[in-house]
Fold:
Amino acid sequence: MRRLNGSGSGSGMGGLRLLLGIYSYTFLLLPGDCHFVTDYFTRTPRKLNAFRSFASVELFHFSVPEDTVVAVWNLITFKEQGGTFGDSCPDRNVTVYFRSGAPPVINPLHTRFPRDTIVPGSFAVTLTWTLPNRTTGVFNVTSPLPGDWFLAAHLPKDEGKISVKGLYEECQYLFQPQLIVQRLIGISVLYPGYFIDQMIPAHNRSVLYKVFIPSYVSRVKVQLANCSTHPRDQQTRGQTEDTRGQGDSTGDSCSVVLKIRARAPPVHNSSALDCREWSPCELDTPLPAWEHWYYILVERYLSNQDVYFRIGVQVTGRQ
Structure:
């Protein structure tokens, strides 16, 4: 693994900048000491096989770090024939499957699963050839779940053609996946029962927090109160206080949306609450996953004003 601090600038980093430049700034948040770190992982090329069964598949394993905001897989495929470039080899599409947590369940031959079988979902990419002996593809995931990720790759099923072994050099198709992740260092940590005063400056779109949920918690409530576009006197930081019932004393509309997600930063379909419609703004999560980080995103609607608020987390123990 090679680690690249900052945004990945430096000699030899043009390719990484090209890949990450499209995807890296989903959140546009860098509060306080928070900054980006880029990590790079690669795997040894392997020969691909025509699909007959799952045993024909080449399986690759990657580990995505915590606090990753974007993961980009660079998928490299090339041909070889007789130890040289396989320019004369036929183009054969390569199918790559992605799944978090376990190897993907695939069905390239479109056979039927037994009745009442639940097939977990996975992502799939088909690589076509752009050069005579080499092709590449890119697959990106915004806010991927941390931990194990598996890639499965194979060639199409053989067409049943008969050839004489040794009459000509065999065409080989080799596949090499690479993973580039960009993660945040220094995400602000919230502690249950404590509230802090915060501000999203006009030049930022959002701010990200995380809170650790221990065992035996039955409910998590994120509370955002005293939301305003006007600065107010700072209250004592770290003061234990239940802010229920407190509204926006200035009568401003709180032009932010509150989002929460377990294990990784929120995405477009995460649990969310429009704080323009609630005062105070409280987002409930019943039956949370234990012993995991929960990520909280406060995202402002488009405006050119600073947004001030107080944020905290309340947890309810199992009865």
